[in-house]
Amino acid sequence: MTRLTEAFVRSAAYERRFLAKNPWDLAMIVWIPLATVLLIWWIFSQTQITDLPIGVIDQDHSPMANTLTRYLEASPDITIANFYSSPAAAKDAILQRDIYALVIIPEDFSRNILSSKPAPIILQVNAQYGTHSGIIQKSVQSVAGTLSAGVEIQRFIKQGMAPSQAAIAYSPISIQRTSLFNATTNYQQFLASTVIPALLHILAMVIGATTIGRELRDKRLGRWYRFIDNKRNDLSPIENDTLNVNKVNNKQAATNIISLKKSSLSVLGFGLAGKYCWPTLAFSLWAVLALWLATLQDSIAISSLLATYIGLVLLMVLSFWLGAIFTLASFSLRAGLSATGFISAPSYAFAGVTFPYIAISEGAQHWSDVLPLTHYLKLHIAQLQMHAPIAISLPIVYSLALATMVTMLLTALLTKRALHHPERWGAR
What we know:
The protein has 18 helices and four strands.
């Protein structure tokens, strides 16, 4: 046990000295994740989408058309950015994203209403932006329904019907809608609190790949273990390390390789844990910050918050080991980074947050089930947004813990394999 502890401590000391001498690697652990968390939260600081700009072409110029435009302007979700005289001018505004939709009021709009004929208004919306399009369509439909209801109810009243009866006669069937979760449509809660773990997941996999990959690239794999194996208290040779491979003493490297080949998996595992202890510590703090921001305006049970925090930390640690596995398996930092980008970057799209999980293809569902981010976000949403019982999410926590242990063991095995093939070191 003393040897394992020594492996962890000496490896951590080696990594600390490396980070102190390399500000960019330190920034990847400290400043970039911190900036990412704060930037995403600031982007979604306006919790609801309001005042989406639309354009109006009024070809009727009647009091009824003026009422419609007033209703449109009064809607909290949209605002009339400009009135246009021709569809061509409005098209240019849509292409320049000055507006996201165009409402056209036909010239016979008021006359058709007075004649009890259909009086449709035309909505042309830029459906390329799904969120914008859905909000605008809902708002315009609501305005049109309100105005239509007012016209019909007034007609019934003029025919001698009581106002209450007129309202029932116009719409005998109504919908009582109840929002179970996120009733205020808070996009900060819906998107920001889930995007932050996804971005931290990407950064963690990149750090996992580069931490071990730079040693492969520079033919320095396992040099931190040399000080453990030789039981040397003096770590000063680290200060003389250089990224210039030409300055590495081949004879000394061969001696180190022989020593490393005899290393046990347990010692390698604890040594690797020491290498990744600083990123783990830093990302544990960023997890605290992310969850604090996500629950700032909500009351969450301690058990739910603790389970979510443990799940997020396990996701970060698992990401470190996955990045290391991809790099060690390919003996190339470039290939490892490519693999981490291929897996982590699109993982949020498969997680079922912005696009329904049940709506994607069967193959995409299988891929989603493999991704660790999918399972963490299930835990995150269930506990922080839906306030589900803790027992529902505990299997996810156990699964993430098991996956972390398995990947750590696999990383140690791949490290031992890499130590047996020094001829493959140095790949970019």
